[in-house]
Amino acid sequence: MLDQGAPPQNRTVTVPLSTGARLMRRKPVERLVAEGGQGEGGALRRSLGLWQLTMISIGATLGTGIFVVLGEAVPKAGPAVTLSFVIAGLTALFSALSYAELAGTIPVAGSSYSYAYATMGELIAWVCGWCLVLEYGVSVAAVAVGWGEYLNELLKGTIGVTIPAALSAPPGDGGVFNLPALIVVLLAMVFLMGGAKESARANTIMVCVKIAALVLFCAIGVQGFRSGNYSHFMPLGMSGVSAAGATLFFSYIGFDAASTAGEEAKNAQRDLPRAIMLSLVIVTALYVLVAAVAVGAKPWQKFNDSEAALAQIMRDVTGQSFWGTLLAFCAVIAIASVVLTVLYGQTRILFAMSRDGLVPKVFSRVHPKSGAPRANTVIVSLFCGVLAAAIPLGQLADATSIGTLFAFALVNVAVVVLRRTRPHMHRSFRVPLSPVLPAVGFLLCLWMMGSLSTVTWVVFGGWMAVGLVFYFVYGYRRSRLAAPSVPSEPSAPSAPSEK
């Protein structure tokens, strides 16, 4: 049996071939780190510092809930939507602590998929990775749908025309094909084809624009603030608050995007934990502030599920179309950055899974000039673009939330398992009060999953069934750990070491 706690050496070890053993086999941390950056025909380039990593997390997170999902969450919770943001943020915080510890300990591209592979075995890792495919891939589509709404607001305020409903909304929302959603995904694909450094530079500019836009909204929206809009703070009860919180958790999925850049970070063990925690604090503060101003400026009963809710509030408060149009312009840029960074995370998750043999090799093929997995990027972009063009936003957001919560729950478990199996491993960040805080994070994830609709659970069950079929038909036999004997690889200089 492969000794998970022993340091790697240049030797060959025998892996048990029984079905149970193969499903539970774990990939040593040292081997994960040693293989970091290596793909088919090339390697990823380490070019990202703390600033770029933080901007990736903020870029993937900030804007999704405020610019897109707020209009759907307010009717569920009323003015207490601010509390829903806090609850969702706290749930994310407990999981963020676990992500920070594991990102510093296992700084690789696979995020929670790789953490699960090192701690709970291949089958659980596959389930986690399949959830991440749902989390990242579907969220790209969901955000792209909202981008189309703000693009129409911008066109309406500047040239007085909008894209016809047939070409700007998916089937079920009064349209035939959401062309803007497909366009923004393809634009993000073009940036990603140039490599991580170039994509990070474009993302940083877009993040600054979106923060400026939200600060501008607060400065103008507070002028229309009416305390009477908060007279019945929780009209739909705690069940409404938790239901809105489960939907709004979709707004926090991006904070873990930095962990997918583990193999392109200059100093991953130091910078990844900092980037994850810093981005979550900034995003949560802005979410709560903007939600409070939005509900104060517009009675919650008048929120009509519009994805362009903030632009409408700006127009109502000022009585002028200019401010709403300006916000729509900023939102078009801001939401594009979410698409860019979340799509980046999706490609890196599949890169790690492909390198392990669980999905086809094409996903780990690296272009020698750009250092980017170009074929991976094209395939994922086309899939997400078509999904965005064909499925309504609400269904996408809830499906993303349940996949995210499940993956986060597994990360909290992984922290506890790794603490027990490798207690002396060097950790650049440690979750305080472990295992208590990881346990709280795990329970909060389960609680919020329970707040989602039955339809969402049915979709999730179907997705997991498809994933298990794919694993047993393809990944189970093609896994790089499936051979009767597997050479143990030496650790890289940056590999975690026992103290």
From TrEMBL:
Keyword Transmembrane helix in annotation: yes
Keyword Membrane appears in the UniProt entry: yes
Topology class, membrane: Multi-pass membrane protein
Recorded GO CC terms: membrane
Main subcellular localisation: membrane
Stretches that traverse the bilayer: 48-70, 82-102, 123-147, 177-195, 207-226, 232-255, 276-297, 322-345, 375-393, 399-418, 430-449, 455-474
Keywords tagged on the record: Membrane, Transmembrane, Transmembrane helix
Top-level taxon: Bacteria
Coiled coil: none
Subcellular location: Membrane
Pfam families in alphabetical order: AA_permease_2 (PF13520)
NCBIfam families: 2A0306
Name by which UniProt lists this protein: Amino acid transporter
Organism listed in the record: Streptomyces naganishii JCM 4654
